[in-house]
Design brief:
The protein has 162 residues and is α/β, with parallel strands linked by helices. Helix content is 35%, strand content 23%. The strands form two sheets. It has a five-stranded mixed sheet with strand order 5-4-3-7-6. Helix 1 packs antiparallel against helix 2. It is elongated. Pfam families: GreA_GreB.
Amino acid sequence: MPTTPRVWISLQAHERLHRELDTLRFLYSAGPADGDTDENVAAVRHAWEKRMQQIHDLLIHAVVGDDPPNDGVAEPGMVVTIRYDATGDTNTFLLGVHGAEFADIDVYSVQSPLGAAIAGARPGDHRTYRLPTGGPLAVTLLSAVPYGMHTADLNQPTPHGK
């Protein structure tokens, strides 16, 4: 019997998803009946049903706010920084559930090509993944820190003169 993997989301994302689900349930219950023959209304109701199911499934399998260990391994709940080997450019993002977080940081899921490539990596590990065009792209993991530590660092005052 297959098991559905647990997914990491922040407490803020958990609360936001609950509010969105409550809003969708209210709109769905207050809207026209299922027998309405307007195709646009039916399409909107179907989209609401689909989104409510997505949120429900996500919340059932969510690990809320418990940061993974600070061991440097790229896994859900970690803010990772990678370097694109060809250009030297860097990118910092959260490995999590796309669409579940706030806009304070980009989110990549471990099912995305980049997320899958770096999952399990440690700082200094080189990984390659395929772009949608089919070409390979090499990256190096520079760091991986728990989301809670990353957000705490952002909230620290900076010394004067820096």
